[in-house]
Structures are given as C-alpha cells and as structure tokens.
Write a structure and sequence with these properties.
Number of helices of chain A: 14
Structural class of chain B: mainly alpha
Number of domains of chain A: 2
Structural class of chain A: alpha+beta
Number of domains of chain B: 1
Order of helices and strands of chain B: HHHHHHHHHHHHHHH
Radius of gyration of chain B: 19 Å
Largest sheet of chain B: none
Oligomer: heterodimer
Helix content of chain B: over 70%
Strand order of the largest sheet of chain A: 3-23-22-19-18
Strand content of chain B: under 5%
Chain lengths: 469, 316
C-alpha cells in the first residue's frame, strides 16, 4: 500500500513543510532531547494529563507530545473548512428534521429504523426545536488523508468532542519552545477558539433569557479524564465550571449554588452524556444529573449544548447517510467524502465483509476511543475468527471499512525522524454563525506502522499549523 | 462564586497550613527528644501526638511511639489524613478542582510541591533527614502562600482562602502551645526551671518566632511572655489575636461584597472580643490548657457557621 507522506512529493519537500526541513536538519540531538524534556515538564506543570478508563495506573499520565508539527497550506485548509462547515450544517438540519417532521425519512432517503430505533434517539425531545435550530454546537469531524487532495471523513462527533485543549496547549508550548519557527512561518493563530466558543454559546440563549446570558460548563467532576479540558475552557471563557450538585431547578429556571445564594443559569455547555443529565427524565440511578432539568429545557428556561438527542447524528450507521443529508437539506454536493462503509446489518454487505475480513477495519456502531475494533491487516488469525463470530451473532452492531493508507507526517522517534500515521479533528462551532478556527487536533500513532491514533491506544498529539496565504 | 469553589479554596488553605504545622510539630518533637529529661523521649513524642489529636490513630497502627514510626506517620502515611503527604495531596487535589479560580503561579506552587513529594516518597528513607523534610514543607507552604498573596485577585475567593488560613493557623497555634501542656503536665515542679524555658524556646523556634520573640520582649523566656506573644500580641503573625482579627477582616469583606451579614461574622467578632478581653493573668488563672481548649472549640463553631452560610450552597 503506497502511503502519502505529507512532507514529501517524491524526493522533493512539499511547500508547506519547506522551512521545517532545515529546522529538523540543523537541530542537534542534545537540543532535541532537551526540548522534548522541556515540553513534557511544561505539560506536567500545566497539569494537562489524561486518564484512561479502565486501565488503572497513573491518573496523571501525559499524552505523548510530538514536536514535529503537522502543516496545511491555505488552499488545503480552505477546502477542508468549506467541507467541514457544510457537514456541520447538514448534521444540524438532520437533527431538527428527525425530531420534527422527519422529511428525510418520508422521502425514503434514510431508513426510519436507523433513526427511530436508534439508542441515541431521544424521544423526550421529539417535537422540540432548540434555540436557533442548533442541536450540535461543537461538531468534531475526524478526517484522514490518503493523498495530496484526498480527504475522508472517518466519523462525526456531534455530542461533546474532546481534545480541543490539546490543540490550544500544544500551540502554546510550541510557541514558547520554538519562537523562531513562528517568526519564519506565517501560522494562523488558534487562540481565538475560546472567545468564539463563548460567543457561540451565548448566541443560543433560551427564549426566556433576559439580558446577557449566564453560561456554565457542566462537568462530571475532577475524576473525569477530560476534566483538565473542562476547567481550561471555563477559565478561558470566564465562566463557572459546575457539577450536577451545584445546580438545582426551582420553578421555571435552573440555578447554581453560590456563596451569595442562587444564581440563574441560561446556557449549559455540558460535558456529560444525555443519560446523566436529569435522573427524572433519563437514569433514576444517576448521581450526576440535575432533577427537573429537562422540564426547564423543554419550556425554554435553559439551553443545553449539545442538545439532548444530538447523538443520533453521529452514530456510525447513520454516518453512511451524511452525504445524502448534504444533498437533501442543502442541495449541494458533499465537499468531503465518507470512507466507503459496509453496514453489517445488511445481508449483502455482511457477506462481503465476512469474505474480506482480513483486509477490513471493523468497528462497533456505538464504540469509541479505538476500543472494540478490528484492524484486519494487523490482526492475528485468532482475533479475526473471534470477530467473525461476533459479526455473525450481532451483525447490526458493526460496520466495516477498507483499511485506508493513512497519510504520514515526520515524527521524532528514538532513532531520529520517521513517518508516522496521523488523523485530524477540527472543531466546528455552530450557533448564530458557523465558525472554525484554523487548526485542530492532530493525533499520531507513535508505534511504527500502527493505524490507531487514539490516545488510549498509544497515540500522541502534534501541533497543527495552517499557513496564512 | 460557586459554593463548591469557595469550599475547595478554603480547604486548600487549611491543608497547606496544616502540612506546615505538622512539619513544625515534627521539628518540636525532634528537638525536645534531644534533651535529657526525667521521663525519656518516649512520653514526649506521645504528648506530641496527643496535642495533634492523632494519638489513637497512631497507637492503633503502630503501637509504641517510636521516633522513626512517628516520623513516617506524620510525614508520609496516607492512612493519616493529617500527614504532610495527605495534606499536600489534598491541597493539590482541591486546587485541581478549582483551577479556574487560581492563577498559574498558585497552581504551579501547589503542583510542584505534589510532584516533589512523589519523588521524596520514592527516595530511600535513610537518605532523608528530618530537618531536610521539615524545611522542605515549610518552603513549599511559603511558596503557595506567597503566590496567593502576590498574584491572586482580591475577590471573594481570596477572602475564602484567607479565612481557611486564619482558622487553621489559630487552631494550630493553640494546639502547638498545648504540646507544652501535655509535656509538662506530669511534673509540675518543672515549671519555671531551665528545662521549662528550653522547651518554650523550642516551641518558639518551631513557630519560626524565636527571633521575633526576642525583638519584641527581650530578657528571659517565661510562660507569661510566651502566652502574651502567641495569644494576645497582634504583632505576632501566628498569635490567636492575629488569627481572629484576620477572620473578622476577611469575613467582613465578604459580608460587605455580598451586602449581608451572617452568623459567621457575629461568631468571628465574639472570638476576637474574647481574646482582646483576656490578660495573661486571667489565662493562667483559668488554666492555659482550658483557655486553649475553649479557643479551639469556639473556632470550630465558627467554622460550622462559615460552612452553613457560604460553603454548603444552602443559602437562599
């Protein structure tokens, strides 16, 4: 499989990476080790760490940071930006539709079963249109690249995509460690993200809100692996970081408990799942939620971002139909392509998948974080057979995709610099306007040849540059 | 500010101050144990645990008060919620929860202490001298305090941090003085002897107040002067008078900012008035131990009132 190395075209260095060639060639080994240690110390001092669920071990583990940046030029980014915004618009239109009249289903463009029988379909909000018609306010679109002009969307994250803190902190650290690089290259800044996020959240204030809306971030608490991110965003936006226990419902509104008594809350950027929002509406056993929250939400007393029920749009089976959504709602051709996907729930597709299993990537429809997936070409015979069994038992639970030749970016490794596979997650903000900061989270599979970039599976992060025109 | 945030800030301060005190307590203990005494070092280490309110917990886990075990117990033991390690960890954990209410400098100071603690925990115990450990704690406590004073916004969060500091510091000063009571209790005839003075001096040293005391009073170290210095003198940074005044001040600022008074302000003023009314004669008439116990009890009542009014989130 030929792999696209984003730095090179044949033997020549591609333009966006031109200046990095010298940078890495002239960097002495000692300086490199020094800088790597400095980066790690900085990350640790900031406290940006990552805990992996179910793995135990050090809760203060760092995600490895690779100093070699990943670079896009203005033209490449321009295309991505258009494609991502288009997708974010279509996904939101789809959500408003499926909780409303369901036109796309009546038109026969997507199977009703896939939507209405979906675990992520929230009957509790059917018929309700959130402020500005936005369900997913932060859309994280995972993109992979296979050639100079070939980009594919791997999946959409419409609920609460995480990782944006790495985008922000990686940049801070790179600027601090290598100011010369930033003088020599004209790199678009990403630090406008928090202000844009705050504006986006304020723009979807609920109907009953008067005056400047009070925005809060709702976190499951400091044991959550993304807690650092929650607190960073709260800090950068200047809003309170609350837990369920800090909120309560009284009459038509939600309040937070403060040292001065109750204070009304208008917009909640929640970083917890639907199931834990309101024990009266969803899980009665949940300690995390706010009893009565959903009633206030439905009567226009508070906005919840992302809106409960947004998850039905980022389901891996629904994913197949996103290009169809773009055509149906926007009357446009999709700018970004999907990875060809087989729905194992369809008998024809299943037959094909079972035949080609060693060449395919198989994922659980509701899985995330790189868990419970099969990478055919890297798997042992036993693993493949185990998956074959799982597929036959519960085909509807799986999708399959061809193993893509993911692009690589030079990465610092033990022996020097070597190509490693990467993906990209930009964060698209949807409120009154649709905005995208020029950058995102580049994840890199640090193991040689590995295609799994998830931090829970030995992935690292890189700073992502978009060069100004 | 969120009640929970105020609560976390308050506890950061209390834990840091407590870690500082435990280190000082260890210093007192090791100095006293270097003295020839009538009843050997054993009972003195025991008195120290009594004063810290940790004697039962220690006895259950280790039995006899052997110096080395006491050092481990007070410094490293995670089963002891008041150990230096437990306090620094809890302070940092509270800090992590309220990162948004702290400056980078304050977080840095808290986090650095915690990271260095983890290194100390990995080090061979025999390479760690007690004096090095206690110095290390006091240095980090001062760094956190300094970062708070130098960089934090003077808002309600700053007041809740200070309320935590003054409450804990007053409680600790009272308890450290009480060590003397426990040490001397068995042999009344020591009072006023050279040994007595040496022990008082050690106590002053542990509070970092040795030099300050001599500047302020001069001459011989006596129980009356010490009580004046550590209880009544508003110039002394650790005196009960200073702590109570600090509480009145910061609670007053909170009340002013919020436009209403609570039971907490009233109790703080009572606490201060009780000290301002007192004289050294009256204190020794009542009994030093009794006076200190009363202070500790009243300060605990005040802590409850503060919790009710501001930290529990129940105020309407």
């Amino acid at each position: 499989m030929s792999q696209f190395n984003e730095m090179y075209q044949g033997a020549a260095v591609r333009v966006p990476y031109a200046r990095l060639q010298d940078w890495v060639a002239t960097m002495p080994q000692e300086l490199r080790s020094l800088k790597q240690a400095e980066a790690e110390a900085l990350f640790r001092r900031i406290g940006i760490t990552f805990a992996v669920y179910g793995e135990g071990g050090d809760p203060d583990r760092l995600i490895p940071f690779d100093m070699f940046p990943r670079v896009f030029n203005a033209a490449e980014w321009g295309k991505l930006e258009k494609g991502i915004k288009q997708r974010a618009r279509a996904l939101n239109a789809f959500l408003v539709d499926v909780y409303g009249r369901g036109e796309i289903i009546r038109a026969g463009r997507i199977p009703a079963r896939l939507v209405y029988q979906n675990e992520a379909y929230e009957k509790a909000v059917a018929g309700f249109v959130p402020p500005k018609g936005v369900y997913s306010h932060i859309v994280g679109v995972d993109i992979v690249r296979t050639g100079p002009d070939e980009f594919y969307v791997l999946e959409d994250n419409c609920r609460t995509p995480s990782g944006v803190s790495y985008m922000l902190e990686s940049r801070e650290i790179m600027m601090r460690m290598f100011p010369d690089l930033f003088r020599e290259n004209r790199i678009e800044p990403v630090d406008g993200y928090s202000e844009k996020l705050r504006r986006t959240l304020a723009s979807v204030a609920p109907r009953k809100c008067r005056g400047e809306p009070t925005v809060v971030i709702l976190t499951p608490g400091h044991f959550n692996s993304a807690y650092y991110e929650h607190s960073l965003l709260a800090d950068l936006m200047g809003v309170e970081l609350v837990e369920g226990q800090d909120l309560f419902v009284d009459g038509e509104f939600v309040y937070m408990r403060t040292t001065e008594g109750p204070r009304r809350v208008d917009v909640i950027y929640r970083r917890i799942d639907d199931a834990f929002l309101d024990p009266l509406c969803f899980r009665p056993d949940s300690m995390l939620g706010v009893p009565g929250l959903m009633d206030v939400y439905r009567s226009g007393g508070v906005t919840i971002c992302s809106a409960p029920g947004a998850g039905v749009a980022d389901d891996k089976a629904v994913y197949t139909y996103v290009p169809e959504m773009v055509r149906f709602y926007l009357g446009e051709e999709p700018i970004l392509q999907n990875v060809p996907t087989w729905q194992c729930g369809k008998p024809d597709d299943l037959g094909h998948v079972l035949d080609k299993l060693p060449d395919l990537v198989v994922k659980e429809v509701h899985g995330s974080g790189g868990y419970g997936m099969l990478v055919g070409p890297k798997a042992s015979k036993d693993e493949i057979e185990r998956f074959r069994l799982k597929l036959t038992e519960d085909p509807g639970n799986y999708i399959a995709q061809p193993t893509l030749a993911l692009s690589t970016v030079p990465t610092f490794v033990e022996e020097g610099v070597a190509p490693r596979h990467v993906d990209l997650r930009p964060y698209c903000l949807v409120g009154e306007r649709i905005e995208l900061v020029p950058g995102g989270l580049t994840r890199v599979a640090l193991k040689e040849g590995s295609l799994v970039v998830n931090s829970s599976q030995g992935g690292g992060v890189k700073d992502t540059w978009v060069l100004a025109e | 500010m969120l009640s929970r945030t105020a609560d976390n800030l308050y506890w950061i301060a209390r834990y840091m101050e407590r870690a500082d005190t435990i280190a000082r307590l260890l210093e007192v203990g090791s100095r006293i144990s270097l003295l020839p005494s009538a009843h050997g070092y054993r009972s003195e280490w025991d008195s120290l645990l009594q004063a810290a309110g940790l004697a039962t917990l220690f006895a259950r886990k280790y039995g006899d008060p052997v110096q080395r075990n006491i050092e481990s117990f007070l410094f490293f033991d995670r089963d002891n919620p008041s150990s230096v390690a437990s306090c620094l960890t809890a302070a940092r954990e509270n800090g992590r929860i309220v990162r948004t209410a702290l400056t980078t400098q304050v977080w840095d100071a808290l986090n650095t202490a915690f990271q260095e603690l983890k290194q100390l925990e990995r080090a061979e115990r025999s390479t760690l001298e007690l004096s090095r450990l206690t110095d290390w704690v006091m240095r980090h406590a001062a760094m956190v305090r300094g970062a708070i004073d130098a960089t934090l916004l003077r808002d309600d969060g700053f007041n809740f941090l200070n309320i935590g500091y003054y409450l804990e510091r007053g409680d600790n000063t009272a308890r450290l003085m009480d060590v003397k009571y426990y040490v001397l209790l068995p042999r009344v005839e020591f009072v006023g002897s050279g040994l007595d003075n040496y022990q008082w001096t050690t106590l002053l040293r542990a509070m970092g107040a040795h030099r300050a005391f001599h500047w302020a009073y001069g001459g011989e170290v006596t129980a009356a002067k010490i009580a004046d210095f550590l209880i009544l003198n508003p110039q002394s940074p650790r005196s009960l008078a200073t702590c109570a005044a600090g509480l009145v001040n910061h609670l007053g600022r909170v009340a002013k900012a919020y436009g209403r008074e609570t039971l907490a302000q009233e109790k703080a003023r009572e606490l201060l008035a009780g000290i301002e009314r007192a004289t050294t004669d009256a204190i020794f008439d009542e009994g030093l131990h009794e006076f200190l116990s009363r202070y500790i009890g009243e300060a605990a009542d005040l802590a409850n009132a503060i919790h009710e009014a501001y930290l529990s989130g129940e105020m309407r």
